[in-house]
Structure formats: C-alpha cells, structure tokens
Design brief:
heterodimer, A: mainly alpha, MetI-like fold, 2 domains, about 80% helix, disordered N terminus, B: MetI-like fold
Chain lengths: ~300, ~300
Amino acid sequence: MTWINAADNADEKRKGFSFSMLRKKLKPAYYHVWAIAAFTVFVYPLVWLTAASLKQNWEIYREPLSLTSSAPTLDAYVELFRTTPFLLYTLNSLLYAAAGAMVSIGFGIVTAYGFSRHKFPQRKTLMIAILAAQLMPGLIAAIPTYLLMREIGLLDSRFGLILLYGALSIPFAVWVLKGHFDTIPTELDDSARMDGASKLRTLLQIHCPLLLPGISSLFLILFVQKWSEFALVSVLLRDPDKYPLSVGTYLLLGADESDFRLMAAASLVNIIPILTLFVFLQRYLVAGLTKGAVK
Amino acid sequence: MKSCSAVRGFISSFVNGPWPWLIPALGVLLLFRGYPLGNQFWLAMTDMKIASGDASFVGFENFSFLFSDPNYLTALGFTILFTSFSVFGSFVLGFGLALMLNRRMTGRVIYRMGILTTWAISSLIVGYIWRLMLNESSAGVLNGLLEPFGIGPVPWLSDPNMAQVSVIVADIWRSTGFTMIFMLGGLQTLPSEVLEAAKMDGAKGWQTLLYIVMPLLKPLIAVALIFSTIATFNVYELVLALSSGGPGNATSTVGFEMYRTAFGDSMNAGLGLIGRGAAMGVSMFLVTLMFALIYIRAGVFARDLD
C-alpha cells in the first residue's frame, strides 16, 4: 500500500455513498490513462523519428503523422555512412568515451583508496573541494580550458581530449568509488598485510575484484556522458578525421534542412548505442547515478 | 645522525601516508580544473583575442561592458526565465509521475522505463529531435497533430515567444525522467509505518503528501532542485541545436552567448573575443558556485565523510 491510497477508506467511512465506490473502481483505469499519456509524450517522438528515418522524403512531407511507410527503406542510413564519414565519427566517439572513462576510473580507484583507508586532518576539506569540482559543468571553463590545451600543445589531439575527459570526471569517480571502498571491511586489508602483501597488491588483487560491480556501473555512466559531450570537443578538435559523432552531427544538421530523412537517421545513429545500453543495463546505470548524485 | 633519522622518519611516514595515493589525481585536477577556473578571472580582465596570444590588462572593462550589452542582458534574462520554468516544470512533472508510478500498478516498470528514456539522450540531439518535430513545413509532426483540432499552424520556432516556450518544453522533456527516478528512489525509502499511521488518522492523500511525504523528502527535493538548476542554467547545446539562439536572439542563453563571443558563430571562426567571453564565463561560474555552496552547506552527503 502506498500513501496515495490512504484517502480511499477514510472517504468511504465519512460519506458512505456509492459515488466514492464508483470512483474507487475507476481509479486504477484513471491512473493508467495518465501513465499512458506520459509514456506517449516521452516515447512517441523517438518512434516517430525512427519511422521518419525509414520513410521516403516525400512521404514525410505528405503524411508527417504516419508511423508506417508504403516502402520502408534503409536508404537514409546507407547514404549517411556512404557519403559522410559517420562511421569514422562513430569509432572516434567510441574511443573517446571508453578511454576517457577508463582514465577517470584509474585515477579514481587510487585516489578513493587513499581517502578511504587513511584518516588525516585535511581529508574532509579535500573531499569537499573535490565535490565542488564535480558540481562545475565543463562548459563554464570552456574558454580557459581551450587556452590551456593550446598552451600545452594538446589542441587537436586525441590523447589530449581523452586526458581532459578523464580528468574532468575524476571527482565523480572518487566520490562513487570511495563509497564502495568504505563497504569493504579493513580486516581484509589487515589479513592481506599479515600474509606479506603490499598495499598496491592488496588494492589490485583483493579490492578491485570486490569493486567490479561498482566500477562497471561507473564506467557505463561515464561512457554515456563522454559519448554525448559536445561543448568542449567542438572547440578542441580541428581535424575532421578526429571528430566524434556529436560534432559530425552538428556539421551535418547545421548545414541545411533539406534532407529530413537523413537528419532523422543521423540523430538516431547518435542515440541508438546509448539507448541499447540503457534498455539492457538500466538498473546499473540508475543505481550508479543516484548513488553519485545523492552523496 | 639525529636529523638524518628524523628525515628518514618523515619520508617513511609520508610514503605510508595518504599522499602518494592522492597526489597524482590532485595534480591532474589542479591542472585541468583548478588552473582554468582560476585563470578565467585573469582572462576576464584582459582584452585577449583568440588569434593572438598577447593581451593587455583592462581591469573591469569587460564586466562593465556586459552590463550595458543588450545581447548579454537579453541572454541573462532568458536564462533566468528558462531555468525557473524548466526546473519547476520538470520537478512538478517528475515528482507527480514518481508519486503515481510508486503505486502498485500493472506495467509500472514499462512506464518508468519509457519516461526515463529521454534522459539518456544528449542535449544536442534532443535539440535536433525537437527541431524536426517543430518543423514549420508540412513535415513537422506537432503542427500535423494539432491541425485536426483547428489549431495552428503554430510558428514554434519563428516567433520569439513561441521559440522560448519551445526551448523550455524541450528541456522539460529531457530532464523530467531523471527527476522522476530520483524522487522514486526517495519515496521508496519512506517508512511505511508513518504512512500507515497517517492513514489511520484519516489524512487525505494530499494532506499526507504535503505534511508527511514532502517534509520527509526535503533533503532529496533540495538536491534534485539544485542539481537541475546547475545543469539548466549552464545550457548551451540544446539552444544551439534547436533554435541557434533565435529568432533574433530571443532564445540566446549566457552559455550560448559566451560561445558566440569567444569562439564565433560556427565553431572556430568568428568574433574570438576571449576576454569578453571569459567575463561571461566568470558570471556563470559565480552563479553555479552559489548553488554548489548551498548544496555543500546542506551537507546531504556528510555521512560519507567519516
């Protein structure tokens, strides 16, 4: 029983009238109407977009509402991957998202270990400073970050971008992973030390396997974040061969609005991998995200 | 001999202490986060251009320019309007949906999943999806849906006021699912005894909500509002994709204006006024910092510090 049912019985006692009985009977249906309406608002645009990408362009203009086509075709996708470097963009996105997430996690594990296994006077201050850094979106410092990358010669560099992506998510990784470290009993560390294992070896061979579920969900969240990133990468890379999907899509869709079907297909290529991950791994994503957000 | 062992003791306590674990990440953070955020204050007081590296100090000239610049002031005004409506709208909708989908009802997992889907899509692509849906030619699906009701065609993106509404609606569409999941998590932690007791006392649904559920969830509500305020205030990609700040500059935001000023309209070619852009960046930083400090003061996360 949830709180929202709480009114029902009380109502009935007071009025003793069949109207409230009727309302009670109707209520489940009533909630489903709202739920279906909300579901439609959030999902219909994606279904419509998919349909548009499979239609003929003239069909889109003649019957924009129709979700079916007289001759469904994958031509838009074929055209997208043949005439534009979208395959290369996709591979670049994959590289930046996966490598960036790995860098954050690598730094995150070591740092979270330090915070979890040591007590020292500056710990609280440092953790709060790291939290403050986590709360600052990358966009705010886009200009000085661009200049920094130019000064240290990492402008237009894949390595530089990955390093920056990794660095920007260290705070989030540290907070999430410290939470996980704190659940591992220190007795494990002690017994490993008795057996002559160094701290580093304890971390790698005992802690890391235990942290694996936490690390996986963190990886997913960071991957989705980096995959979607546009603001920074759009000014940091110049060589078109290095563009990720977000920048490629901006260039394609910003140029002209004539080929509706192609635009729908390009948008979908951006979100299909993420939605696939999302549908199958939603539980992990949400668990990891709310954990990081609440703390 | 004595000082030698003192040095050795210091070194060994250093090596066994926390610092070897922390210094690498702190160094990287200082370089990629700390330095740019600090440097921006200096840049904002120079007349640096993107093409040339040298710059001279101009004091607060950039800031005083901003406060008389109609483009910046319009953008600031719309950003505040956009943030207020979007944060409020997505909270009310998200919390409402969370309350409804916390009930035992058939298919609630499917409903939740469908509503959360949009959260996984980047702002840039959300902007493009809505631009396609709001298209004012015969291909636009929203005008097509309204036509049978005798409404429209609505100038979704070509009328300044409608364009502002469109950008806000698109952002609510993007962020509601997250608020819903976040608040659902909170609702599930509520002790059922308290709710039962309220029911026994004959409290109505809305009374339970207002006097029991909301006070219990106050910290979580604060976190949800602060997070979405920070994300919404610093909007850039959504506006770039959906309306390019137009028509005119009706939907330009501070983030959008900063990019246009520093990097130009189309990526790397354009105005290139680093100093003035940095001043806008400082203004965004200060607003964000204010909300971040409120969050930190609230100390919701404090249990993790011990």
